[in-house]
Design goal:
Elements (H helix, E strand, L loop, with lengths): L1 E13 L26 H8 L2 E12 L4 E2 L7 H12 L3 E5 L5 E2 L4 H9 L6 E5 L5 H9 L6 H9 L3 E7 L4 E7 L4 H12 L5 E6 L6 H4 L16 E2 L1
Parallel strand pairs: 1-9
Antiparallel strand pairs: 1-2, 2-3, 2-8, 4-5, 4-6, 6-7, 7-8, 9-10
């Protein structure tokens, strides 16, 4: 039986790096001589008022077939129904693995991207037209360095999906401007669990180690799961 895991962080703060020569604001060595200057207005605003997003990560495992990766499991037809129930918006666009910008995607195209990303893609969905500039910035930078552009998209009401390479196929992560956990859990229960798939929901903070992320590899046969893991 395939396994689907939904990791959530609600809310999640979007940390903006300091404008140092070193993009990691936590490192204090090897700074340039002028790095102690006061932060600019945008950076100061981000530090004093960090942006809030609602983060999710959808992963999959087929234990019988020994395949790890959501899109590598026989769950994607059901997953598309669940994702559509929560994230169906009139405007969608995305950036393909080769950097090509794809404007005005219809929902069938969105379904195809979810099912077979064929590389690292960025997909954006919204009720209003989407500005491609911050989406390009998000796609071209490491996640943390692209947090300012991601903040811009969240403030505009855009949900952003990222295909995440897995051992086989891809998982999907996303950042939403509004809470989605309850709606997505209901959609998983309705569309995915009903398809003879075991679905589990747990907080990001409880799955930071590899063994906890892949708990299904060793823990499902135990009498009970940790209390922070909910099966739906």
């Amino acid at each position: 039986m395939p396994i689907v895991k939904y990791f959530f962080e609600e809310p999640a703060l979007l940390e903006t790096p300091m404008p140092d020569a070193n993009p990691d604001a936590r490192r204090r060595t090897e700074r340039s001589a002028d790095s102690d200057r006061d932060p600019d207005a945008d950076t100061l605003r981000a530090l004093l008022n960090p942006a809030t997003a609602y983060r999710g990560y959808l992963a999959g495992t087929d234990l019988e077939a020994n395949r790890v990766g959501l899109t590598a499991c026989s769950v994607m037809d059901a997953m598309v129904h669940a994702l559509t129930a929560v994230f169906s918006h009139p405007h969608a666009c995305g950036i393909a693995p080769d950097g090509t910008f794809n404007a005005d995607l219809d929902m069938q195209a969105v379904h195809n991207w979810w099912t077979e990303p064929q590389g690292e893609r960025v997909l954006a969905l919204s009720d209003a037209p989407i500005d491609p500039a911050p989406l390009h910035s998000v796609a071209q930078q490491a996640r943390r360095e692209g947090s300012a552009a991601l903040r811009t998209l969240m403030e505009a009401g855009v949900t952003v999906f990222f295909s995440e390479p897995a051992h086989d196929g891809f998982d999907w992560s996303f950042f939403s401007p509004a809470p989605v956990r309850d709606a997505l859990v209901d959609a998983l229960r309705t569309h995915v669990s009903a398809s003879h798939v075991r679905c589990f929901v747990l907080p990001f903070q409880k799955a930071r180690s590899e063994s906890k992320f892949y708990f299904e590899q060793w823990q499902l046969n135990q009498a009970s799961l940790p209390t922070y893991i909910q099966e739906v």
